[in-house]
Fold this protein.
Amino acid sequence: MEKIPKQVWTESDLRFQFKLKELETHPLLVDWLKVETLDLHFSSVELQRLEKLRSTLKQNFKFWNEEELKMRFIAFILEIAGYQDDHPRFRIYLERSITAVIETIRLNVEADLMLAAGIGELIQHPYFCFHEYKRKKKKADDPVAQVLIAMLIAQVLNENDKPIYGCHVIGELWYFMVLHGKEYAISEPMSATNIIHLKQIVAILKRFIDILNVHL
C-alpha cells in the first residue's frame, strides 16, 4: 500500500490523483440551495440574533482567528439552524479525525464539524462535512481540499453511492458543496455580512436536515 506521509493536498492535487471533476453546478446542489420563502421565516428573536451576529461579523471577520470565527459566529449560526445532538439520525462531531484508504492512498483529515451517524466517539456514516478557514484560501491550508478529503473518506466509510454534502467558510463567505461519485460542485459564495444572504445560509443548513431525513 502506498502511503504519502504528511501530504499537503490542494484541490488540484485531489482532482488529478482521484480523477475528480468539478462541475459548474450539480442538480443535487441546485436542489439543496433552493430555499423557499417559507424557509426564510424567522421569529423576531431569531431575527434579532441574526442581525447582531451579522453586525459583529462585519466588524471583526478581517481580524478574527479561526477559533474566534468559530466560537463567536459559526457556532451560533449552527445552533439557529438546529444542528443539535438530539436528532435521531445524526450526532455532531467537532474536531474529529477520519481516515480511509482510497486507491492505495491513505487519506486523513480533521474535520471542524461533521454530522454523522455514530455510537459514542465512533463515527460510522458521515453525511455532512464542514471546514472553516479564517481569511483567504492558501495553498498550505486549502479549505476546498480539506472538505473534499473528508467527503472522499465519507464515501468509503458509508459504502454506498449516496452523495456527500459539505460547506466551507472563508472569512465572511460561505460556500456549499456536493460530491457524488467523482463529480463535485461548489456554490457561488454567500456573504454572511449581508442579512438576506445570512438568512439564506441558515435556511440552506436547515434544508440539509430535511434532505438527510428523506434521501440519505
Q: What stands out?
A: The first strand starts at residue 21 and ends at 23. The helical segments are 11-18, 27-33, 44-60, 66-80, 143-158, 195-215.
